[in-house]
Amino acid sequence: MNILVVGSGGREHALAWKLAQSERIQMVYVAPGNGGTQLDSRLRNVPITDPKLLAEFARKEHIGLTVVGPEGPLAAGIVNVFREQGLKIFGPTKEAAQLESSKDFAKAFMQRHNIPTARYQTFSEVAAAHDYVQQQGAPIVIKADGLAAGKGVVVAMTLEEAHAAVDMMLSDNRLGDAGARVVIEEFLAGEEASFIVMVDGKNILPLATSQDHKRLKDHDEGPNTGGMGAYSPAPIVTPAMHARVMREIIVPTVQGMAKDGIPFTGYLYAGLMIDSQGNPRTLEFNCRMGDPETQPIMARLKTDLVGVMEHAVNGTLDAVELEWDRRTALGVVMAAAGYPDAPRKDDVITGIPAETADCVTFHAGTTIKDGALVTSGGRVLCVVGLGDSVRMAQKSAYEAVDKIHFDGAQFRRDIGWRALKRL
Ligand code: AMP
Ligand code: GLY
């Protein structure tokens, strides 16, 4: 079978890498892919991003199944386009993707279905938004309604920051249409975890748990990023917590979407905040896998992903049981100089070690230029180490990180610290 993976990041490299391990695969195409997917002989890059042209490609190349990595094409309706042509694709329709593409949709949905989340109100009028902020006090969280590539959330610790965020989005229109409406919500304290499941419209298959590190620098300091590292499993999600999240958040979400007439298919990612009493609340939904969470999760998956994806598009996920490597997988993101504000391009990358049983490097912002592997985006690589403990996984990952070089590389030295603290 031929498979198509849509996207170009570390998440898509990890998905393609895992799919290509299946004996049933002839070719895994990645559109548009990156330097790493280009270098892997089992994968082939396709320089297409337009959903209609991708569907045409899928028909011509006899693609048996397509999986979509990022939210952009999902919100643009790639699943609708493929399905209209009878092509098999795993992801949510444009309508279902609103769980991620509109914070107001997601909040109203959660309120309607009694899914635990922060209290909120939505505004498009700047004066009313300022009044609400003043009345609620700080800390408070201001979120652009639409997709803003990770720049749409301001966690304001002071009233001044909160008012500035309202002005930035509603008066100065700095986020364009995405910020034309804002959700203003209660600040939640606690520890975050990523809870990702596969959904076929009705059946739910949870993946291994994980935890991301959003801040650029060690000790969770510096600006927010797309994620500087992740590991799996996340010890904060105990079996009891897992059961509770399924019961209170995931099952009501999947049933609620079906009841509302917009059945959800695809990866569903609930970003959780777990408070000091152990109560989980939903910070956000993503309608895709996490990046970089996918990299350690795929490194631990033992089951053939092709078979799982087939069940997912055929509505038979209830027949699947996943098998996981019992070890911890820990991914360290190496980012370009200037990331996240203004990542520099064209730095030559050297020293990436060959894949072993306990270390694999996934590419994101890389490309081949004049025969050399160079940086081409913010997050450049995600180096995943596996080990019998968090400490061992960390050691495998950082041994490889220390061999890799590009000018201005930024990475954290403390990925996994929350798990270590807990143990
Ligand atoms: P989101 O894109 O909604 O997940 O927000 C990005 C990040 O902002 C989250 O990963 C949290 O670290 C933080 N955040 C979002 N909402 C809240 C909230 N209500 N309280 C505290 N922190 C939040
Ligand atoms: N790692 C966070 C995300 O994928 O949204």
CATH architecture of the largest domain: 2-Layer Sandwich
- CATH fold label of the largest domain: D-amino Acid Aminotransferase, Chain A, domain 1
Bound molecules: adenosine monophosphate, glycine
Count of domains? 4
Main sheet overview: 5 strands, parallel
Q: Which of globular, elongated, flat, extended, rod-shaped describes the shape? A: globular
Percent of sequence in beta strands? 25-35%
Total count of helical runs of at least 4 residues: 14
Tell me which oligomeric state these chains represent.
single chain
Number of strands: 22
Structure classification: alpha+beta
Distance between the termini: 43 Å
Biggest sheet strand line-up: 3-2-1-4-5
Mean pLDDT: 96
Percent helix: 25-40%
Give the C-level CATH assignment of the largest domain: Alpha Beta
Question: What does it look like?
Answer:
By secondary structure, the chain is of the alpha+beta class. It has four domains: 92 residues, Rossmann fold (3-Layer(aba) Sandwich), CATH 3.40.50; 68 residues, ATP-grasp fold, A domain (Dna Ligase, domain 1, 2-Layer Sandwich); 129 residues, ATP-grasp fold, B domain (D-amino Acid Aminotransferase, Chain A, domain 1, 2-Layer Sandwich); 95 residues, Glycinamide Ribonucleotide Synthetase, Chain A, domain 4 (Alpha-Beta Complex). It has 14 helices and 22 strands. Strands 3-2-1-4-5 form a five-stranded parallel beta sheet, with helices on both faces. A five-stranded antiparallel beta sheet has the order 12-15-18-22-19. The longest helix has 21 residues. The N and C termini lie far apart (43 Å). Bound molecules: adenosine monophosphate (AMP) and glycine. Glycine binds next to loops.
